[in-house]
C-alpha cells in the first residue's frame, strides 16, 4: 500500500501505543537515520529522565538546535494537580511548555521547510485542555515537510486523527519497536 499523502504531498505518520512501549525510541532512531541520509529534521522530542530520588521527569528537545528544557515532573499517586485540574499525573513546567511551543511556532513561521517533522507528543493536554503544543495541528496541516511523525497518546487518538486528516497510524509495542524504525525509514523517509 502506498504511503498516505497529506498536505502538498507530505506524509503524516501517527505513532501510538501504551506508555513506555518505545514511541520516542522509534522517533529517535528515525531522526538518526534521516540525519545520516543528509535530511533536515525539525520539531520536538520528549525525553524521559529521573531525579536523584527516582522521580520521573520529561524533557523537551528542540531537534534543530539540540537545546532541551524540563517539561514535566511525575506526581506519584494521582492524576490531578493540587488545584484539582486533571493533568494525568504530571506537573507541567510552564517554561518548558512555552519552550516547546516556541520551537513549533518557529517551524510554522518558517513554513516548516524540513524533510522530517517530529511532534512528540500530542495528548490530553492538547486535545482535552487546549494547552501545550496545539500549534502542532496547524503546523502539520500546512505541509512543507516530507514526513510528519506525530506521537499520539492513545487516550486521544481518534480526536487527533480526525484533526490531522489523512494519516497512517502505527501502534508501537515493546515487541516491535526495534523493527519499526527501519520499516518507517524505508517506506516513508523522503529520498536524501
How would you characterize this protein structure?
The chain has an 8-stranded mixed sheet, with helices on both faces. It is of the alpha/beta class and 192 residues long. The longest helix is centred in the middle third of the chain and has 16 residues, at 94-109. It has a single domain, classed as Rossmann fold. 31% of the residues lie in helices and 28% in strands. The protein has 6 helices and 8 strands; from the N terminus they run E-H-E-E-E-E-H-E-H-H-E-H-E-H.
Number of domains: 1
Strand content: 25-35%
**So what's the CATH class?**
Alpha Beta
Q: Would you tell me the structural class of the helices and strands? A: alpha/beta
Number of helices: 6
Largest sheet: 8 strands, mixed
Features:
28% strand, 192 residues, Rossmann fold, alpha/beta
